[in-house]
Amino acid sequence: MAESTTVPPGDGGRLRRRTSLIICYVALATLALVWLLPIAYSIATSFKSATEIAYSGFSLLPAHWVAENYVTLVEGASSYPVLQWFVNSLVISTSHAALTVVVVALAGYGYTRMRFPGRDALFLTLLGISLFPSVVNLIPSYKIVQTLGWVNSPLAMIIPGLAGVANVFLVRSFMAGVPRELDEAARVDGAGDFRIFAQVILPSIRPVLIVVFLFSFTGSWNDFLWPTIVFNDIERMPITAGLLLLQNMFGDYSKLGQLMASAVLAMIPTTVLFLAAQRYFLSSLNLNAGLKG
């Protein structure tokens, strides 16, 4: 039997690996602090009293934990309907994400399974156009929304962006990994395109569709600029446009607690959604994950 030629790592190799590991941990810990510290400060500030915020100087944790900022938000619902904004955002983001999944799944099927002249050239053209800064579309998009009578309507946030090219690209790449032999076997059994799409393709790409739903929901929920343009009715605003309104109302430094409390409320759905769908998000990093089990 041939002897193994693997050379055990020496002290120098182990030292280099350990040093690299320590550097990686330090870098990751630093990045985690950069992301988590503002969130921790916002949550802690939302539980501080107005007096403590105004006179105690900077401190991460409150000296006395109070819930008066959240109570003030609820009691002031007639002036700033935070809970209504919360519901509006929930309806808009859920509707937008669900419709996005339907649209990009159909588009991905068309760009990978259906044959028509110029298919790849059309997709590459759309991909190139998507590289333009989105801000250049603001005025044309607003004119279209205004013409359709969608100003101050949830449709102004639900419909635009349903066919995001980035999501189509993600689904198309994932779908390309599904063996075509499955389609051919289904066709032999007499299945048409719709049946193949519904019974063969959709179950195979479920992980990436969940990721698309997650991305679309968080993107719609966190969208700040577009809602401030298409909404001026306070009752119909989503939470992000409402936060801008609160910033103007609570610009006084002593009202920082109410502003932080409303921001914390706005973070809850996306945080819960990410924690619930985290394993699907991680599986999407492997474009062939949909073919497993």
Task: Describe it.
- The chain is mostly helical and 293 residues long.
- It has 15 helices and no strands.
- The longest helix is centred in the first third of the chain and has 36 residues, at 11-46.
- Its main location: membrane.
Low-confidence spans: 288-293
In percent terms, what proportion of residues is strand? Answer: under 5%
Radius of gyration in whole Å, from Cα?
25 Å
**Mean pLDDT reading:** 83
Helix content: 55-70%
- Tell me how many strands there are: 0
By secondary-structure content and strand pairing, the structural class works out as mainly alpha
Measured distance between first and last alpha carbons = 38 Å
Assembly type of the chains comes to single chain
Q: Please trace the helix and strand order, writing H or E for each element.
A: HHHHHHHHHHHHHHH
Count of DSSP-assigned helices? 15
Q: Biggest sheet, open or closed, and with what strands and sense? A: none
> Can you tell me the overall shape?
globular
Keywords: Cell membrane, Membrane, Transmembrane, Transmembrane helix, Transport
Protein name: Carbohydrate ABC transporter permease
Membrane topology: Multi-pass membrane protein
Organism: Nonomuraea helvata
List its traits.
single chain; 293 residues; globular
Topology:
Blueprint: H1 11-46, H2 50-55, H3 68-75, H4 82-112, H5 119-129, H6 138-147, H7 155-158, H8 165-176, H9 180-188, H10 193-204, H11 206-222, H12 225-230, H13 239-249, H14 256-276, H15 278-283
